[in-house]
Amino acid sequence: MKLRELAHSRTGDKGNRSNISLIPYDPTHYQHLREEVTAERVKAHFRDIVHGAVERYELPLIHSFNFVLDEALGGGVSRSLSLDTHGKALSSALLEMDVSAPPGYAPKHRVAAGAVATPTAHLPKAEDFLLWPPNVQAYGYRIVDKLFNSRPIRKGPSPRPLRYGHQLELSYQTANGACSIADFIDRNALSGLLVLKNGQVVLEQYGLGLLPSDRWSTMSTVKSITATLVGVALYDGAIHSLDDSVTKYVPSLLGSAYEEVTVKHLLTMTSGVAWNEDYTDKQSDVNRYSKSLADGVPGGVFALLKALAREHEAGTHWRYNSGDTFLLGAVLRSAICMPVADYLSRKIWQPCGMEFDAFYTLESPDGLEIGGSRAGIALRDFGRFAQFMLDDGVVDGKRLLPDGWNDDANRHAYTFSDADRALMPQIASGALAGYGYSWWIAADGAMTAVGFAGQRIYINRAERLAIVTLGAFPQPGYRGPDEHDRVAEVVAFTEAVKSALGSSGA
Amino acid sequence: MITTDNGSRIVRLGAGAGFARDRIEPALDLARRGKLDYLIFECLAERTIALAQQQKQKSPELGYDPMFEARMRAVLPIQREQGFRIVTNMGAVNPAAAGRLAKAIAEELNISGLRIAVVEGDDVLPQVKRSSTRFLETGDPLSTRSNELIAANAYLGVAGICEALEAEADIVICGRVSDPALFLGPLVHEFGWSMTDWDRLGTGTLVGHMLECAGQVTGGYFADPGYKDVADLGHLGFPIGEVSAAGELVVTKLPGTGGCVTAATCKEQLIYEIHDPRAYYQPDVIADFSEVRIEEVGQDRVRLTGAKGSPRPADLKVSVAYRDGYIGEGQISYAGAGAAAKARLAGDIVRQRLALAKVDIDELKIDLIGIDSLHGNNLGGSAEPYEVRLRVAARVKTQTLAEAVAREVESLYTNGPAGGGGVAHLNREVIAVQSVLLPREQANAVVTILEA
Description:
The structure holds two protein chains of two kinds.
Chain A: E1 7-8, E2 11-14, E3 17-24, H1 30-36, H2 39-45, E4 54-59, E5 64-69, H3 90-94, H4 134-140, H5 144-147, E6 150-153, E7 172-174, E8 177-179, H6 181-187, E9 190-197, E10 200-206, E11 216-217, H7 221-236, H8 246-249, H9 263-267, H10 285-295, H11 300-306, H12 322-336, H13 340-349, E12 358-361, E13 376-377, H14 379-390, E14 394-395, E15 398-399, H15 405-409, E16 414-415, H16 418-423, H17 425-429, E17 432-435, E18 440-442, E19 447-451, E20 455-460, E21 465-471, H18 486-501
Antiparallel strand pairs in A: 1-3, 2-3, 3-5, 4-5, 6-12, 7-8, 9-10, 9-21, 11-13, 14-15, 16-17, 17-18, 18-19, 19-20, 20-21
Helix pairs in contact in A: 7-12
Chain B: E1 2-3, E2 9-17, H1 25-33, E3 38-41, H2 48-58, H3 68-82, E4 85-88, H4 95-108, E5 115-120, H5 125-130, E6 149-154, H6 159-166, E7 171-174, H7 181-191, H8 198-211, E8 239-244, E9 249-253, H9 263-271, E10 280-281, E11 286-288, E12 293-298, E13 301-305, E14 308-310, E15 315-335, H10 339-356, E16 361-369, H11 376-379, E17 387-396, H12 399-410, H13 412-415, E18 421-439, E19 446-451
Helix pairs in contact in B: 1-3, 3-4, 6-7, 7-8, 10-12
Domain AtuA-like ferredoxin-fold (chain A): 1-99
Domain Beta-lactamase-related (chain A): 193-489
Protein name (chain A): Serine hydrolase
């Protein structure tokens, strides 16, 4: 939660030094803030602004703190080039800090009796993220960064304009007869649909009120993006080899079941560590992982992963595991020595000329990026990423991915069995044949990023074709008995696009 | 002064201004209805005194607060009716000229028998120039700036104010004294506190600290809609401090005025512009606010107790102002989709042009107002605003170079990205302010009395 919910603040200046008070509304929160808002965290929060030391003074009798920030005012009020030469607005910036909720915290009605009614936006419950009803999905997937801790993936100074070709027109067959593109969007609660053929946009449609600038939740499609970043780091030399042990980068896992796991095992979901990814079971590993993330517990996911047991020898069994991708993020973070979001910005977002800042959500306030779920990306930038993959990781003649990386990523590291199909119905419905470097390999050979509730990036390199579908597929409790299989319908639509656009080389 | 039922005396201090350009009418309301013993105007910030020095260099009759005349014209007739005394630092670098002006205004308004005290002695430029002192902030010797020095003013304590009040002054016009001293002086005078009673002096410093920013303790610089609502800020009332001989302070304001005095407003002001709460350095005491208690004792009435003090420091703090080049600045706006990209491109163009023209720049700042101008990219917003204003500011050595910076922004009209409009530009001389320490024996208050 934001510090602003718990405390108020005022800034003063003396020379090049700023002082910022922090005063909890509820005096019983003093101890909690004492632990949360340390001088170190304030220094990190203001790292671009404060060039000197940060000191915290405590005033326990009035339950308040005073932070003194050295070299914080650009040389002082008379010399500073800043618009706010006094630093008066720094108090508001301090209150933007993310903190964990105090034990037993319940938001109070803080407005004094008789005060003017204040318009307030109520936000959906973050911990129910995977359980929302359809009306909340449509809204909530657009504001993920308001519900969770996040870190921006900055775009560069100028976006790369997309090229637009002739508008795609088609119809496709369903059990209810022939359907149009508009039907496709309506029947499947799609918020975004983008088709790129031979480097040109031939279809760009928005639904459910989505705007081009909105960053829709990626869900697990971001696993494939994080995995691609591993390729970039390999090309960079930051990661030495995919056969490196995970503990080379994350030594705190020594002694856990991850000790014999390599980077490639994480990429291909073959760590062999016991894991239950059942979203409907509150006690499953994935839901305990989600709970830790929702509470923003620093190190909470690590503690969970360290305690996992080994089920199979590493590299022998495939199991879809969001914990493994989380760890992949930790490996990256350690190898590249900068936040994963910054690396993604520098290596892909800026060179590709992304149009909007994207974001990763974080394990805890200011913590590690969650490599495997619910980042936020605008529709066209999903498209630009797909084009980057179609271009084999080469931008303006400059190679960013190792030669042959996409071939490896697109190769079956694991081929699905009938048992897998029985266990995960979406494998059959989605016409998925195997799993590569955190890409699902479709029956037609396309590399596919797949996420909860209808998110999908389909990349068919042979046909120079990419299809991005963003959606809010209703979840089991909200589906009628006779509703169609939406995952299968996306496959049917994909086939229709392929035949409408014909083969590559046009 | 009011005497309460149990015989203890209460002094009522009103704060009539919190900075040089503050509103006048709340001070007049306090003057009329506040039953004040003292009305105090604090108007002299670190940099204000350097600007005043530049005025004085233009004319020997200038160099006091630019709003001094307006304030005096408005308040002197009320003072005559109500009988409170006025203490202010509006004399800035020329208290004597301010005193002569006050005398002239009083005579013009047919106010006779008015005693005006002028407190000088804070100008220590000669002493500082002779010394081998170093700046506290950067550690550089003062001599590195000897050619650019404009002013050096010591923060004096209450001695001059007390002397003036002993001499029955109705108005005490100071230059640089410590801000809390404007309030502490009257309390020492009224209650006869010893200048070695450190806890009392610490308490009086707390009184001054709470009141000196006027509206900042009554709900100004405080409102945050939905979180901290404050009623009727258009009629914000200025504060009154009720102080007992024992040093108990109640902060309040006039009924019927806007704003509020609450524990929260008082907490914010208590911590405002202090560093270590245990050691707030003042000329007459090192005040300790770390054990202050704050309680609401009525509607818009907050009691503060528990301030302490320890012996005064050996040195006085001196603000030294010096010329430090110029700042040239230009701004231009872009709108609609792509506004930020256009503004960024415009910034890149200006950067390139300044390099091509070989404009010698000490420091350059390029801001996108609406995106990153206040706190940079890390804290700044990522959402695309509808409109963006590019701001280019550069610190340079000469006015000509400052104008060149502004001109490069203006030329974006016809040479920059599409749709740039609303150019504004300015350049100003930089008067930098740093501090040095001076042995207190080298700066003494000198009081002169004028009579209208």
